[in-house]
Automatic annotation (TrEMBL):
The keyword Ribonucleoprotein does not apply. Substrate binds at E90, E220, D305. Coiled coil: none annotated. One of its GO terms (molecular function) is 5'-methylthioadenosine deaminase activity. This is 5-methylthioadenosine/S-adenosylhomocysteine deaminase. It comes from the Bacteria. The lineage of its organism: Bacteria, Bacillati, Bacillota, Clostridia, Thermoanaerobacterales. It comes from Carboxydothermus pertinax. It catalyses: S-methyl-5'-thioadenosine + H2O + H(+) = S-methyl-5'-thioinosine + NH4(+); S-adenosyl-L-homocysteine + H2O + H(+) = S-inosyl-L-homocysteine + NH4(+).
Amino acid sequence: MSILIKNGTIVTMNANRDIFQGDLYIEGNTIKQIGPSLSVTADKVIDATSKVVIPGLIQTHIHLCQTLFRGQADDLELLDWLKLRIWPLEGGHDPESLYYSAMLGIGELFKGGTTAIVDMATVNHTDSNFQAIYDGGIRAISGKCMMDYGTEVPKTMQDTTENALNESVRLLEKWHGRDNGRIMYAFTPRFAVSCTDDLLREVVKLAGRYKVRIHTHASENKGEVEFVLQDRGMRNVLYLEKLGMTAPNLILAHCIHLDEQEMKVLAESKTKIAHCPSSNLKLASGIAKIPELLDLGAEVSIAADGAPCNNNLDAFIEMRMAALIQKPFYGPTSMPAHKVFEMATIGGARAMGLENQIGSLEVGKKADVVIVDLDEMRTTPNEGVNIYTQLVYQAQSSNVLTTIVDGKIVMENRMLKTMDEAEVRRKANESLKRVANRVGVSLA
């Protein structure tokens, strides 16, 4: 199928950061032409007059498995949030509940212009998570959550080292590269608190052997940092460095409580940092020193995290929050809108190892494209206003009209195309009741 998007303001995010009025032509899953006025015919023509055409937004730390538990773990700090609510609920998933949790998240992401994610599934039923990614049509790196350590982890979430590794390899061999590379696998140990040395060391070896990403958490919470210091004898990032994990293929969520040495390790190793500002605020975890990390040359992208620690999967909220929370500490120019938009596009592509395929609108790249309507009261005036400030400070997910992933329209005029929205919501509500009853958790 071919698609011609006409007369839009095209925000390319190419090396020159070109912005111009014109057309974008998609053939199959690839951007074939971009220009001021293209003379081509297409199977479908979308009139983008007075609209803005942007690269699909990229979120590098998501838990689709937790979307079902939105609103069920509010006003708790991280470790209590995990032990009292999230781990028990995650452990209660069945294949159907996990599928609809993921589909619910994917639908929300599409409605907010997110086209690609790095996802951490739960310990069990991970095939259902991948099936939702396949059916829903989002571009994703995902993997089975690996947990083989911890006396306070519920039995439903406990795994052996051997099974965690074997099941991860099985899933990788089944799903990695599916649908012309739209679906990819990452090894996903949860964090040092719930993983043994043996597991993490083997993950490093396997990721190297299969040439895939590692996706985990670190230094999100002071209690977590203290636990790792006492249990492993060193601070979190230094411990990961000792294991050989800090490297360009590591995606490390949060990175709030770092000392200077740890920040240098992350920057010099080109470890990819996933910044989750709303989640960090809601769990009272803290504010990551993103301007300092960027000054050191660290590679930072952006994400919403999971619905229970954020209540939204909205990249526009995360962009605005990422820009605002640093200004009281580092000054009004510390996180300019254009830099934050880079984190949500080409920065996310680099984290996924896909900067040559997505993250910008350029000929030859994959057609992950979003059309945004900024012609309304909240985003007016449009004349003489910087487009990045409009996108970061003014736009909301409701401004997204059309979302295209890999050349396929997954949402058009706010209507989802790869799922029945009402059915997904109904099945999600049914699944939540079933899971909560199974594990004896009272719903909020």
